[in-house]
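Example record

The entry below shows one chain as it appears in the dataset: sequence first, then structure tokens.
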Amino acid sequence: QVRIVESGGGLVQTGASLRVSCTASGLSSGAYRMEWYRQAPGKEREKVASITPGGYTEYPNSMKGRFTISRDNTKTTVYLTMNNLVPEDTAIYYCKAQHTLSSRTHYWGQGTQVTVSP
């Protein structure tokens, strides 16, 4: 059974840093690209970062500079480090495991809330 579990969210002040984690189990880490998304209230879900099984990272232009995706050596835990947070970063942050060869095969976690106070 595949499980995607996010953790590490919370309430922080403007300018703070925060690292959220995503632990994947029940799947072959070498076959999935791990992705972070976020969804703010009243807005569509947007991609924040991704990392391939080979370690290649990608960020949308709007996310470059303050967000860093990484993973541990076992490749089962992926991190999103967020620096210089602003209230506009307030959202639920979701982790997604996307199969690299099948676009229809993917798994989502339930998300972790990040709230940035002014």
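Notes for this example: The two ends are 40 Å apart (CA to CA). The mean pLDDT is 95.
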